[in-house]
Amino acid sequence: MRALDSRPPDRIAEGVICEVAHRGAYFLEHEHPLRHFRQEQWLPGLLDRWVVSGWANDPRTMLDNARDKALRLIREAPNRCPLSGGKRQEPQKILDTADREMGGV
Fold first, then answer.
1. What one-character-per-residue DSSP string does 6-19 give?
2. Whole-model pTM?
């Protein structure tokens, strides 16, 4: 999310805050949020908001979603630092050594 101080003044709506605050802060009754809410709304990419019955049909966790996103990024992201030849195996060798030392696979 962007910092508040990087937003244009009309998006911060200081005037709207001053206008409605003394009446109980009913911001949603003002036209400003209606104009801007779609640009300001943030929906998390890993968390779902299903009801329990929906989750029961597809019991995916946030970890499942994170793993899928990571695999998708690995598959689709541009390679900005391509390795050539034998250097491609070096990262895997380092990981394999670390796994053995930590008692993993």
1. GS-HHHHTHHHHHH
2. 0.42
